[in-house]
# Entry
Amino acid sequence: MSEILYFAKLIAGELIGVLQNLLFWVVMVLVAFQYRRIAKARESLFGIRGNTVLRDTLTATWYGFIGGILGSILLVLTGINLTGLAINYIWPLALFLMLINPRFLCFSYAGGIVALSNLLLGVPAVDVPQLMGLVAILHLVESVLIYFSGHAGASPMYLKKPSGHMVGGFTLQKFWPLPIVAVAFLPEASGLTILPQMPDWWPLIQSGNGFILGMSGVLFPFVAGLGYGDLALAHTPVEKSKLSARNLGIYSFVLLGLALLASRFQVFEYLAALFAPLGHEIVIYIGQHIEFKGRPVFVPPLRGVRVLEAVPNTAVQAAGIRSGDIIYTINGQPVNSKRDIETVLVSGTRLLEIEYITHRKKKWQRVILELKRHQPTGIIAVPEGDEYTYTEFASQSIISRIAGKFLGTKKS
# Structure
């Protein structure tokens, strides 16, 4: 435990130095643009605003630094050596892939492509087991970030499923700039923190090139970017983020195991390089399958009005009403549709007494709230089938698209 605390102290000092790295600010700008895009889409669909782009970006950066400390400790203890990982190839490729789809801002795809290029073509020069270990640890950190913050800022949506049914749901999109520290072996180590004496079992993931004589082991800071995208239809955003975190965690441990084996048996290099992108696609496919085949949460109840979202920073949200709750009465009048709610509110009253049942605990609640002048109620109800603004489903998973083509599944 004392060794881990010692490393944590060294790593925290190195991470502060990342603030002087231009690439870190480039990633920050990219993350800010992604949150700006999400905010605009949210406002165009429902005319509402969530948190500010600056707040979302700073929150993501805070979580990114925490994840960076965790990831750095894991990278140092496993002995991942940045010297032969072709980071200069992976980053531009990851940024290019992001232009195709934002969720491709992920080292599983760029790392897998670079590793396969090395194994099949011999270029670029890269230590495949260590690269796959890096990808595994970054995704393990991502699974932790998803578990604790993947649901935050989820955007409500009306979705038309391939079957033609309209359901409510959420898009979960998060982006984190990840400053991180790993081991590097350099001929000149001035200005960098020298790696202290390591245990006999280190490195856990062996380097194919071994340690280069005459070079110093140092703690070297660099920058990564993590992105998460998902849908919540059969689960609430909180439930979905925990489920996604579990699946991604399993993927990470499997890939880490393959990296360990690849450092000892060459045949596993191919398995690890293939599993990095394909395993990630399988995780996405499973997540989508669960949501589309499961029982949707955000559909109208037999009685009352189900809340899709209580808009942040509104009186309803402050009163404790949450996504999935069912509103039965407002000011003593039964409500069974969005129009019923509008009828109650058209009188202009600003004092509301709302009776509802909570989604999670099925507990009857009554709250009294007062709306400020020109303040909206903040209630977004689930779709009732007559909405003219909605999203049609387009699969995010390459595997699901291939399956749909061969099985004749129709996609909207």
Observations:
- The CA atoms of residues 258 and 272 lie 5 Å apart.
- The first strand starts at residue 155 and ends at 160.
- The two ends are 53 Å apart (CA to CA).
